[in-house]
Amino acid sequence: MSLCLVQSRALVGLEAAAVTVEVHIANGLPNFFLVGLADTEVKEARERVRSALVNSGLEFPHNKRITVNLAPADLPKDGGRFDLPIALGVLAASEQIDAAALAGYEFAGELSLSGALRPVRGALATSMALQAAGARSRLVLPPGSAEEAALVPGAHVVRAAHLLDVVAKFQRRAAGEPAPEGGEGWKEMAVSAPCASFTYPDLADVKGQAGARRALEIAAAGGHSLLLVGPPGAGKSMLAQRFAGLLPPLGVKEALESAALASLAGRFALEHWGQRPTCSPHHSASAVALVGGGSPPRPGEISLAHHGVLFLDELPEFPRAALEALREPLETGRITIARAARRSEFPGRFQLVAAMNPCPCGWLGSARACRCSPEQVARYQGRISGPLLDRIDLHVEVPAMDAAELLEAPAGEPTAAVQARCMAARERACARQGKENQALQGVELDAQARLTPAASEFLRLAAARLQWSARSTHRVLKVARTIADLAASAPVEVVHVAEAVQYRRGIASLAT
Fold first, then answer.
1. Which residue has the higher pLDDT, 366 or 386?
2. What integer is the mean pLDDT of 322-348?
3. Structural domains of the chain, ranges and CATH numbers in brackets
4. Which helix (H) or strand (E) holds 360?
C-alpha cells in the first residue's frame, strides 16, 4: 500500500481537534514533503523521523517521493506530537507494518533520534477531548504523557516507550496469528488518580494580624477577591501564600480542568494532582503573559490559576494593560483570546489575592516616617484604576508589627481549623443556592441575601454616604452574606453588613 492514514490530535486552546496524518509514497525524485499548515517544530519532524527509523533498524524509503499531509489543512499544528504518527504512516505506506491494524488507535509522541518516545504537551487535554467526543479510540502516548491522560475516567490509554514497541504491536502477521501481548514497552494504562500527598503552608506561622486573618477566612468561605495593603515586611506575602490551604479540596472534575490547563503549558506534574494552583507572576509580566496568547493560543497565568489562587504582589508595579486585563475574568470567569485567524476561550475562575504598599517608599501610615510627597502617593495609588479596584471585594490593612509583639505573640490558629469553618460556610451556601456567594448575580443575589429590614437600611445609608457604585454595593452584600454563613445565620443582620462595609474603605483611607 502506498497510501496510509493515521489518526492524531492537534491542540488549539483547550480543544484537541482530530487530525488525519496522510502519508503517500510514490516513485519520483527522492524527497520528503510535509504539508498542512505545519509550523517549524512540525516540519523538523522529517529529520527526526528519518533518523529514528534508521537507528531503530527499520527501513526508510530514501529512493521514494514521500508526501505527508496533516488534514485539515486550515488547522494550525505545532510541537513534536506528530512525529510518531508520521513515522507509523511511513512504515505502513511502505508495507513494513499492517496499515489496517492502526484503525481504532490515535497516536501522539515526539521521537528522539534513537527512536525513543518523549512526552508531549497537552496529553490530558487530548484525553479529555476524546472522552467528550465519545470516541472509543485507544490513545497511544509516550511515558510521562500516558500517565497524565490516564487520569481521565473512562480513558483508553496505552503507554509506549520506543518506536519499536509500537512497531511490534502492528507488524504484519499471518491469518489467525494472535497479536503480541507486549511488555513494559507497550502497556495498557489503568485509570486511577494518584494519592494526593501535598501540604500547604500553615496559617499558624502567621502571628498577630487578626484583621487580615479574618479577611482571608471570609475570602476563602465565599470565593471573594482580596487586596492586602501594608508596609514592607508586614506579612502580606506570607498571608497570601497560605490562602490556598483554606480552600476546600478539589473535586475530580475541577482537578481535571486545572490539570488540563497546566498540561497545555507543560507545567503539570503528577505529584501536584488535586492541588489547588497558586500562580504568582512577577510584576514585570506583560498582559499576554497574564491573559495568554500566541499562535496557536496558550493559556496565561489567569487560566493556569483556574480553581486556584492568582497572587499579584506589588500590584501597582504591574503594567497598566496587564492589570486592566483582569477586569473581564474577575466578572465572567473566562478569557477569550481573539486573533485574526482563530478565536480561543480558556476558563479563568480564580481567586485574586493582591498585595501592595500604601506609597512608593512603603511607610505611609506606619510608625516610620514616610518620605513621599502627596503627589507621589496619589500617582502611585492611581496606577490601580477605579474599575479594577471596584471589582476587588475586600480591601484590608496589614499593619506593621513591632519586634516585641512579634517575638512574644503565640502561634496563630492553624490552617485546618480555619479551613473547617470555611468549608462549613461554603456548604451552607451551596445547600441554599447551589453556588458560592461570590457567583450570585442579579435576582439570585436579591433572593438569597435575606437582609433584615434594619440591615437593608444600614446598607442603603452606607452606600449613599460612601457614594458606592452598584457593583460595590452588590459586592458588599455578597461579603455580608458570607459573613452571615460563617456565623451560621440564615438572615443577614446589621452586624454582618457593618463588618462587610469595613472591607470597602479603599486604598486611600487604609493608608491614612
1. 386
2. 87
3. 3-188 (3.30.230.10), 203-430 (3.40.50.300)
4. none
